[in-house]
Each structure stands twice: as structure tokens, then as C-alpha cells.
Amino acid sequence: MTERSLRKRTSSAWANALSVRLSHHRQRQTRRYAKRMRFERDGRRKSSVGGRFSQAAGRVEPACRASSNGAPLCDLLCALCVSVVGGFSGFCKRFSLSLKADSFSARLRRVKGAVSTVRQAARIREFFHPVKPRLEMVEQFFELELEQALPMVREVGGYVLNSGGKRIRPALVLLISRMLGYSGDRDVRYGAVVELIHTATLVHDDIIDGSDLRRGKPTANRRWNNEVTVLVGDWFYSRSMDLCLEYGDVEVMRRLNAATLRMTEGEILSASVRGRVDVSEATYLDITRRKTAELFAAACCLPALFEPSLNWFEGHLHQFGINLGLCFQLIDDVLDFTSAREEVGKPVMADLREGRATLPIILMLEKADQETREKVAEVARTRTFGSMSEEELLDRVTQSGVLDEVRRRAAVLADQAVEVARFLPESPERDALIGATRILLERKK
Q1: What sections of 129-150 are H helices per DSSP?
Q2: Can you say how many angstroms the Cα of residue 389 is from the centroid of all Cα atoms in its chain?
Q3: What Rg value do the Cα atoms of the chain yield, rounded?
Q4: Distances in whole angstroms, Cα of residue 270 to Cα of each of 205, 267, 275, 287, 369
Q5: What is the pTM of this model?
Q6: CATH 1.10.940.10 fits 149-442, yes or no
Q7: 191-223 pLDDT, tens per residue?
Q8: What is the pLDDT of residues 165-174, one digit of tens each?
Q9: Burial letters for 387-422: b for 16+ Cβ neighbours within 10 Å, e otherwise?
Q10: Where are the domains of the chain?
């Protein structure tokens, strides 16, 4: 073969290869154009953010299910991942987004919010990790209790207990028991008892407030009726005390009964100022301590009553629980203004809709003019936004800087809880308790 013919054949091969590549390129361009046109026609154009989020969800969701082993600790994470596996449109449907109405920036903000929720769920799972097997035993305890109950109690009670609670109070009982070196089985029983009492208060609160939504689901009183629901709440209270008597733990029962009494007093005080905004900060904190912090404190103190040698820790544990509970409620008050309905599982500004003046409102009104005070008072009295719009009130609260002030006070309470925890036995469980203060402080729902 001559040099000229070889050069000619080589040029022909390169030309053929280039032709094939150009042909493939044109085919890819045609497919992309057709795909883009099809997406635009259907109004379902996916963003790259949504695609990457869907792929990430596909990787996270199986691992989450494997690690959670069916426990409620990761339900939020699993539900979120399942919702986005189908793509960005499925994600938007889950969070009630309209792709046509929302701008891309709005969609991106919602995606970032969901990512934050996933990260928060992962942090909560880390907090629970040292006692995860014991928490699963608490869930089994609930199942056994409901199996032996009346059919209506089993139906309503199962619905309420499985409605997405974080199980923070049982986790506190279990973590502190392990931290103090307790190795018996009372921690599981009393972790369940504390959650039963907490659930009973939620059931009764929903009836008193006339709430229709909790944790993103219809309340029990909405699904059934007030009569049935209040009786199931009474059953929770009565059964929790009965579980204490079965072990003959009079001191434990006395502590839980005292916490229940304080919670009832807190609800009475709250009812006495319902519909009013001229509530002092001291009154608000007194109500909050009784309604929320006392049960946190009881959950923390119970392990110190399991054995006489542990009684020395009771005072420190009580103060830790009080600070933690107050911090929890202050952040809850902030979230009532800053979170979307889908994130907190209830309407935004739900407290004021129910006639309750929380700390952000109390602090804001101290700086407000007379006209604003009168408008907010009318909203609380009528429980409707007639005198002013929701947007107007939200703007006034945000611009006043009171939300940052409430967060600052919650951070102070969290720091005080950490300082008290330093007096407790050094252990991984104590580190988890300290970490819990940060989780509660940074929570989004």
C-alpha cells in the first residue's frame, strides 16, 4: 500500500468517525429538545435541585428504614424521603406546593426547609441512639396495654399514640436511668407512663382549645367526638397511676401525681386569662412552668427514685428538667410565628387563634402603640383575624425583634440546663442529654 493510499484511507476513517459522532450529537440534541418541550407542555418541568434531592432521598430512605427498625424515631425522615423519591413534583405535592404559582426561589426555600427537617430528624435519632432498644420496648409496652383495653380505647388510643410524637420524655427517663447505672426494667415502664400522661394532656388540650389539627393529622376529638376523646384521656391518666401501683412505687406515684396536679393548675390559670393579652411575663412563665416544664422535670427525676442510692441526684435532675422544659416551650412559641403549617403540623399563629398570648406577643405589645394593642386584643378576644390581617401581625412581631429575644432567653435556659448537667455522672448518656438541649433549641417543628 502506497503512502498516498494509506493517507487517503486514514482521512476517510476519521471522516466516518466524525460523521458518526455528529450524528449521535444531533440525536441527543433532538431527544433533549423533545423532552424539554414535553415537560413545558405538561407544566412539570423539573429543576436540577429537585432531581438531586430525589436521588439523595432514594439513597437515604432505605438506610433510614434499616436503622430505625420500624420505630417512630425516624418516621418523619422516612415520610419525607418517600415523598420526594417520585421527583420534585411529588415533593411539591407532599408539601402542598403549586409549581405554577410558586417561583423557583420559593420552591428552593421549601426544599432547603425540608433538608433542614431531615437533618433535624437525624440529630434526634443520634440523641435517641444510646437507648434505642429500650425505646422499642416502650413501644411494645404500649401495644400490650392497648391489646388489653376496650376496643374503643384501643382504636382511639392507638391513633393518638401513633400520631408522630417524638418520645422525648420517655427517652429522658431511659437515658438518665442508664446514666445513673440502673439496670432493672422500671425505666421502660415509667418511660411509658410519662408518655401516657403527656398524651392525656394533649388529648384534653385539643378538646379545650377546639383544635382540629395536631402533628399534621386530624385531632382525636375531630375524628371521633369530645365525649369519647375526653374519656380516653381519662383512661390514660388512670392507667398510668395504676401502672405505678402495680410495682408499689409510692414515691414515683407521688412525683407523677404532683406533676399532673401542677399541669392541671397550669391549664386552669391559662383558661383564666384566655382571650386576654394583658398578661404579665411572670404569669406566662408560671403557666409554662406548670403546664410543660413540670412533666419534663418529673421524667428526669424518676430514675433517681428507683433506688435509694440514686436519691442524691434528684435535685439536679429536677432543675435540669425545668430548664429543658421551659426552653422547649419558648422555642415552640417562636415556631408558632416562623414555621409553615406543614412543618409544625398545625395552623400558624395557632396560639393567638385559640386566645392565648405567648411570650412573643407579650413582649411585642410592651413596645407597641395603643392602636396595635387594641387590634391584637380584638384578635385574641374573638379568636379571628378581623381587626388586623395575619400578615400585618406577623410583620409587627418580626420587626419588633421579639422573636430573637425569645430565642436568646431559650438559649440562656439551655445553657443553664447544661451547667446543671455537669453535676451528673460523666457518661455517653450525659453527653446525649447535653446534646438534647441544642436539638431542642434548634428544632424546626
Answers
A1: 132-147
A2: 27
A3: 28
A4: 11, 5, 10, 6, 25
A5: 0.71
A6: no
A7: 999 999 999 998 888 888 777 777 777 888 888
A8: 788 899 999 9
A9: bbeeeebeebbeebebbeebbebbbebbebbbebbe
A10: 11-125, 149-442
